[in-house]
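queue> pop job 88
queue> type: inverse folding (structure -> sequence)
queue> payload:
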């Protein structure tokens, strides 16, 4: 059974790894880079998170249409179930990252950065799946 110190080290290591992933995959043309105040940053991140969510929703609707058009209704049902589980995992991970900054005014920004990045990556992954399905058809 891990001790409290080991548990703390593991949590810190996970947080550092998550931050490294986000930072290493950050886009050079991030529209929020020009925001100057914490409020501006949070407003920009909220807009960008909504955009990422819309893009993800669009890709999911497109995947649904593609799969149903290929008579893959059963596979779509599994994909839909997995997507719901992905949302739960993503929300939990983003909330965990936010809590690491609970005593800091950057907590909301951290949450939004993680959420946006994960949704962008998921939308890209789904777009790739659509491309593969269309090639196979």
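queue> result:
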């Amino acid at each position: 059974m891990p001790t409290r110190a080991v548990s703390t080290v593991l949590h810190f290591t996970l947080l550092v790894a998550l931050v490294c992933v986000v930072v290493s995959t950050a886009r050079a043309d991030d529209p929020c880079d020009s925001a100057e105040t914490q409020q501006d940053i949070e407003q920009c991140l909220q807009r960008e998170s909504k955009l990422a969510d819309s893009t993800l929703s669009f890709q999911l609707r497109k995947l649904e249409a593609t799969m149903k058009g290929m008579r893959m209704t059963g596979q779509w049902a599994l994909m839909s179930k997995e997507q719901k589980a992905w949302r739960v995992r993503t929300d939990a991970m983003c909330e965990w990252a936010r809590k690491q900054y609970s005593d800091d005014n950057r907590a909301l920004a951290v949450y939004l950065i993680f959420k946006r990045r994960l949704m962008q990556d998921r939308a890209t992954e789904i777009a790739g799946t659509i491309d593969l399905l269309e090639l196979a058809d």
